[in-house]
Amino acid sequence: MNKREIKANAPSKYMAKFQAINHELETTMKTHLIENLDTFGIWNDDYEQFLSERGKVVSREISKRIIKQEIDKKGQSNLVDDFEEELTTIE
Fold first, then answer.
1. What is the DSSP string of 5-66?
2. pTM > 0.85
3. Residue 41: is it exposed, middle or buried by C-beta count within 10 angstroms (0-12/13-18/19+)?
4. Cα distances (angstroms) measured from residue 74 to each of 63, 64, 79, 80
């Protein structure tokens, strides 16, 4: 997408413009890991929804590409942080 077109415009505005010229917009956006313009909050400018949905897709795609190791099967151990910071005052 063209940065000159996007600028400071809301996603619903610039995506509507792109949709008018790209009849395969849904397919195009899937190549950018944006699976569904409706559920990703694009049309109602819901940035929190976008981040949540995009995070799920990115995480899923990363998981597909990770070569699991034996240590991954064990899970994370509970680490106890025994370091205590000393309170200091600046005078």
1. HHTT--HHHHHHHHHHH-TTHHHHHHTTT---TTTTTTTTT-HHHHHHHHHHHHHHHHHHH-
2. no
3. buried
4. 17, 19, 14, 18
Q: What is the pLDDT along the chain (91 residues), one digit of tens a residue?
A: 567 767 788 999 999 999 999 999 999 999 999 999 999 999 999 999 999 999 999 999 999 998 888 887 777 676 666 555 555 556 5
Token output for 91: 């005078």
Gap between the Cα atoms of 14 and 67, Å rounded: 38
Do the beta carbons of residue 26 and residue 37 sit within 8 Å? yes
Q: How far apart are CA 61 and CA 90, in angstroms?
A: 48
